[in-house]
Design goal:
This protein has helices at residues 40-45, 56-59, 61-68, 70-73, 84-93, 165-172, 191-197, 202-209, 228-238, and strands at 2-7, 20-23, 27-29, 48-50, 78-82, 114-118, 124-127, 130-136, 144-150, 153-157, 179-183, 217-221, 244-246, 252-254. It is an alpha/beta fold and 262 residues long. It has a single domain, classed as Ribonuclease Z/Hydroxyacylglutathione hydrolase-like (Metallo-beta-lactamase, Chain A, 4-Layer Sandwich). The strands form 2 sheets. It has a 7-stranded mixed sheet with strand order 6-5-4-3-2-1-14. The structure holds zinc ion (2 copies). Residues 55, 57-58, 160, 222 line the site of one zinc ion.
C-alpha cells in the first residue's frame, strides 16, 4: 500500500493545501484542495473517495474534480463513501444545482458521474485487497476517521477530531498499526478553541495518544497556517520517544507487504 499526501494543511497558501490523501492510485481519503495536485490522468484513475466529514476543507475538490474528468466518468462513476449525515450535506449544499450542478444525476440518473454510498461508522469496506474501516470520532459535525489495512500492513487517519474514546478503542482492537496520521490543528495556547471547535492541540493529543497500545510512525496533520513550527515543537515536547513528523504535501509512505515469517 502506498499513501501519498496531496494536502495536509489546516488552510491554504502557496505550497499548502487542505486534506487529501491518495491510497495507491484509486482511492482518495478526503478531497480537500490538495486533490488539485493530481494530473488529469491521475484524477481519471480515482475510483473511490472516502470522506471524514462535510467541512469544506475536506470536500472542496469533489465538485471540481468531477467536472474536470466528467466525460471519463459517464457510466464509470466515482463512488463517494461517507456516513449518511455527510452525504446529506453534500447533496443539499453542494450538489443542489445552485452552488454546483447535481453530478449525482448527470448526465442522467443511470449514468451519473458520482455515486454517493452511505457507510455506517464501525463498518468496513473491501476494495481490491484493501480493507477500509470507518471509525466515529469527536468533531463539531458528524466525523469519522479511517483505518486501512492491506497485505498485513495498516494505516489510520483521525480525520478532524478532539479527545475521543472511540478512536483509540477502535485502533486498540487490532493487533497492529504501522502508520498514523493525526491532527493537531492548534497550539496549546489555543486549547479553548481546540475544545470548542473539536480539534486537538498537542496537550490534548498527548493525553489521548497515551491510550494507544501501538507505537506507529506518526504524521501530524491539519496544522493551522503560520503555527506549524510552534505546534510541532509542542508535539515533540509532549510526546518524547514517539516517531513524529510534520506531514507535508508530496510525502509518500510505502507500507510493504508483511511476510509470514516477519
Ligand atoms: Zn472539520
Ligand atoms: Zn478540517
Amino acid at each position: 500500500m502506498r499513501i501519498r499526501v496531496l494536502g495536509c494543511s489546516g488552510g491554504i497558501y502557496q505550497g499548502a493545501a487542505t486534506t487529501s490523501f491518495l491510497i495507491d492510485d484509486d482511492i482518495l481519503i478526503d478531497a480537500g484542495s490538495g486533490a488539485a495536485e493530481l494530473t488529469l490522468e491521475q484524477m481519471r484513475a480515482v475510483r473511490h473517495i472516502f470522506l471524514t466529514h462535510a467541512h469544506l476543507d475536506h470536500i472542496v475538490s469533489i465538485p471540481l474534480l468531477a467536472d474536470s474528468v466528467f466525460g471519463h466518468l459517464v457510466g464509470n462513476p466515482i463512488i463517494v463513501h461517507a456516513q449518511q449525515e455527510t452525504l446529506d450535506v453534500l447533496q443539499a449544499h453542494i450538489f443542489n444545482s445552485q452552488i454546483w450542478p447535481d453530478f449525482t444525476a448527470l448526465p442522467d440518473r443511470s449514468r451519473a458521474v458520482l455515486r454517493l454510498e452511505a457507510m455506517p461508522p464501525g463498518s468496513r469496506t473491501e476494495i481490491h485487497g484493501r480493507s477500509i474501516e470507518m471509525i466515529a470520532v469527536n468533531h463539531v459535525v458528524p466525523g469519522v476517521g479511517y483505518r486501512v489495512e492491506s497485505t498485513g500492513r495498516s494505516f489510520a487517519f483521525s480525520g478532524d477530531t478532539t479527545s475521543s474514546e472511540n478512536l483509540w478503542a477502535a485502533l486498540n482492537s487490532h493487533d497492529d498499526l504501522d502508520l498514523l496520521f493525526i491532527e493537531s490543528a492548534y497550539a496549546n495556547r489555543d486549547i479553548g478553541l481546540a475544545r470548542s471547535a473539536c480539534h486537538y492541540c498537542p496537550q490534548l493529543l498527548s493525553e489521548d495518544l497515551a491510550r494507544l497500545k501501538h507505537r506507529p510512525q506518526v504524521g501530524i496533520t491539519h496544522l493551522h497556517p503560520g503555527e506549524e513550527a510552534a505546534i510541532m515543537n509542542e508535539c515533540r515536547e509532549a510526546l518524547p520517544g514517539w516517531d513524529l513528523r510534520q506531514l507535508k504535501s508530496g510525502d509518500v509512505f510505502v507500507l510493504e507487504r508483511k511476510d509470514n515469517n516477519e
